[in-house]
Structures are given as C-alpha cells and as structure tokens.
Amino acid sequence: MNHIVTVQDAVTAFTDFMEPTDAELDAIEREMPVILADVDLLEAHIVTLDRTPTELDERRIRRARRRALAARVALVNRAAGTSLTGGAA
Fold this sequence. Notes:
Elements: H1 4-12, H2 22-47, H3 55-83
C-alpha cells in the first residue's frame, strides 16, 4: 500500500526551486503596465459580449486598444534602450 505522504514528499521536495527568481519578478514588474492595459482591453470586450456595442462601448474599446499598444511600445522602447551599447555610428 502506498501512502500519500510519500507522494507528498516527492511533490514538495522541489518547492524551493519552484519559486520565481528575482530576475523573473523584475521582468513581471517591467511588463505590468502591458498586463494591466491588456486586462482593461479584455474588460472592454467582455462588457460587449452579450449585447450590441454602443458608441460609448466602441470608444472604450478603441481607447483601451490604444493604451495597450502604447504600453507595448513603451516596453519595447525601454528594452531597446537598455540593450543598445556603444555610440552613434
């Protein structure tokens, strides 16, 4: 008969290694504006799932889409600015 404790020990033996590293947490923090903008865009779409979108809904979706795009552009620009080395050619 196998005891669940042995399975539990095998499953939880690597819990220390399953935590995110500091670098992963920093990456999540850098991407948080993009994540929040995407959540706003999803919320704007979810509101219109069960009804015909009104003009206000369409404006909300467009605004959320622009914010999501701007957040992605800012993230890419920030990443490109930190990875460039050297001076102008």
